[in-house]
Design a protein that fits this description.
- By secondary structure, the chain is an alpha/beta fold.
- The chain has 9 helices and 7 strands.
- A 7-stranded parallel β-sheet has the order 3-2-1-4-5-6-7, sandwiched between helices.
- It is globular.
Length: 274
Amino acid sequence: MKHEIASLLALDGRVALVTGAATGLGEGIAHRLADAGARVVIGDIDDEGAERVATAIRDVGGSADALHLDVTDEVSARSAIDRCVELGGAIDIVVNNVGWYRDNGSILEQTYESWRRAVTINFDSAFLCSKPAAQRMVEQGNAGAIVTISSVDGILPCLGTGYDAAKGAIFQFTRSLAVDLAPFGIRVNAVAPGNVPVETRRRMESGEIPPLWTDPPLGTGLMGPLSRQRSANIPLGRRGRVDEIANAVLFLCSDAASYMTGQTLVVDGGWTLV
């Protein structure tokens, strides 16, 4: 392979914050960015988990730090960006990965408190982390990349009114922010994963924690037979892998995607096609 081709995905010298990276997709994304040469900062409310991931990256020769981050708190989000700059001298990449899908189901049963929690964690967090990052990137004057993890549930309703609405809002937030920051060379994109098993899903399926999928007592559409049939009918015939989502994020953060902004990569094995 020619060096110039390999260098397109290289992130050497760049500092990346990955939110919610103590487990699941975020953990996989953090490892992939570190593999590409980035100094990765693991931001999570789970301090022990964040340090575990950072240590694992360092153990294989990567560069990583852990910090406490509550993505629903404006002060915490700004402090995290400031800390990234202190650690690495800049902030070049932000991956808004945090997601919460426990507040799901029909609006006939969902409380307003549950709705607000779903929207705050899944949507407001992207604003709270992107704003201070964008301000720093503009000050630095060397562009940057922001990638937010949405979901196929933002395209085809599935889990719940709050979650689906928040994930759908990410698409327009991405487009709007991309136009807003384009004059500064800051690229803003999103990834919409499909059905990808993560640790939380494994714990549900093993009975360690309550299951996500339950039969709605009122016979509503969300999380019912229609949604289950759709999610089981993936054209490629299998669920996705964490590394396949991480690869998409790496692409969007890298120079290989230097002329892409305001776009959402749907990585779902064709889930949204049928």
